[in-house]
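Why this split exists: single-chain examples teach little about how molecules sit against one another. For that reason, every record in the complexes split bundles all components of an assembly together and asks for one structure covering all of them. Below is a record exactly as it appears in the raw files.
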Amino acid sequence: MNEPIFEGLSLAEIREINAEMSHYENKTAVSIEALKIVQKHRRWVSDQCLIAVAELLDISPAQLEGVATFYNLIYRQPVGKTVIHYCNSVTCWMLGSDQVGESLCRHLNVELGEMSADGEYTVLPIVCLGACDHAPVVMVGNELKFDITEDAVNEILGR
Amino acid sequence: METLAKPLTKNIRPDRAFTTLADYESTGGYQGLRKALAELQPKDVQQWVKDAGLRGRGGAGFGTGLKWSLVPLDDLSQTRYLVANADEMEPGTFKDRMLLEQDPHQLIEGMIIAAYAIQAQKAYIFLRGEYHVAKFRLEQALLEAKSKGYLGEHILNSAFNLEIVLHTGAGRYICGEETALLNALEGKRATPRAKPPFPLVSGLWGKPTVVNNVETLCNVPHILHYGVEWYQGLARGVDKGTKLFGAGGRVKHPGLWELPMGTPIREIIEQHAGGMRDGYKLRGFLPGGASTDFLLPEHLDVVMDFEAVAKAGSRMGTGVIIVLDDKTCPVRMVLNLEQFFAQESCGWCTPCRDGLPWTVTLLKDIIAGKGRIEDLDTLAGLTRMLGPGNTFCALAPGAVEPLQSALKYFRADFERYIAMERA
């Protein structure tokens, strides 16, 4: 069977997105999974990819853009190889998350959301990560790190 | 008997390891399901859960058996769905993560029984995108359950079939609201839907759908296995069963504990959490997450029951307490909370979209020394305008709970900022 080629997506991405379709009633339902698949391969979702995914799912690019910009974990701008999310919700805030965020940005010489000069990192705030008994916490890539101190920030950044 | 006193956490180990299928079965796992499928009709299962008195553990406390009984079962050929709400994102709450990561089969068994009770053949787990460990372990557990015949066609040689799909979200607090969750699951922006129709009648893709919280579903296998009377006997208060209670903030030992419903808040904070850290005093607390009203040390003897906490002027919510110490400014704490809610508002209805950022602006001005005493009236007015009945969903009414109670209990702190500017 010939698989359609959508300009802007790799065959691997298209296969993974199509595989998700079996779990849902219609193609639209795969929107979020599809954007996450693109991100797994490319770290972020470019305009070109967004349009290609919309075409694959038979929805308008505007509708998909509405979805993409709604969710915190879909990036519509380039991000570093590792995204560091620091929790800034109430318990972490009480125990010093502002300092954690500032420290991460200072060490990397970036603003929030910006990519470090070497392309390695992006720092973003995130809502409660559900580990308040170990506040303040950060999520480095997919990994949760507990009880963050200034030393821990250095360790995370490998310095 | 330890096992029977703490059914939800009996398999939870200090090393936070994964409970495999074999481990789970060795402590009575999947016995509740066996009983349900072999001996009980769907309506009987609903009745057991209703009689047990299980109320939803996501925050609202709706009767679980009652919810199930509202699903139309007259046309058995109709598609029905069960959804496990694993989108834990209430600030200060960390209970479902433990259940998902460390005993995923408990959730899966609860889901199979719940699906049987409402005759759903397809179920979804709506998991927070940030819960990566939980995702990995649920995937493993689902495979194990399928290979052992607990999922799929003719479960345990019965006529019942069920498929469970794990869906991971992309992060937004509003996804925890059940109709917003359904929109997210349909691949749309997670805006809440108008009710009625309720999801029980018209939910996912317009089909009858039950959405239950993770902890709620985790109670179900034990009710079936050990019985209604045993379950009712677990509690110390009016509400039934046990619950995961917790405390975070400047307490000596932040954590989670499975305790009987009706446990006094004082016991949770002073005994289980070890009281305040040295050098800190208890100023107040949010009993069940960011969207609950502040209570004061004078409320420590209130028990964790839905009505008891409501009578004290707050909500039990998720049952995980956020502790305010005497060195944290309550005005700044409320600013942090309102910033969260303003950011996470879906923007669908005007009071929430415009009102929450307004509270943030006023609070920032007050803290910056640019506040006026009239601002406190404006804030109080906003808590009413964003209250129940004025918005599409419960986000804004929840958001103003800590604000309205802070204005009541910590008014002097607000006034001090305003007076500072005058001086």
